Amino acid sequence: MSHVNANFFEGVEKLLEVWFESSRPTSESLRCIPIEEFERLTALANCQIVSRTSCEAMDAYVLSESSMFVSDRRFVLKTCGSTSLLRTIEPLLQIAGEYCNLDQVANVFYSHKNFLRPELQPEMHRHFEREVAQLDSIFENGAGYCLGRLNHDRWYLYTLNPANGAIPAYDQTMEILMSDLDANTMSCFARDVSCSASEARKLSGLDRLFQSDLIIDDKLFEPCGYSMNGIQRKSDAYVTVHITPEFSHSYVSFETNIHQTVCFEQLKNVVNCFKPKRFIFTAFVNKGSEEQRRIEYDLANTTVGGYRMLDCQYLRLPNHTLVYSYFVKSSASG
Question: Which residues are the active-site ones (predicted)?
Answer without folding.
Answer: 66, 80, 227, 242
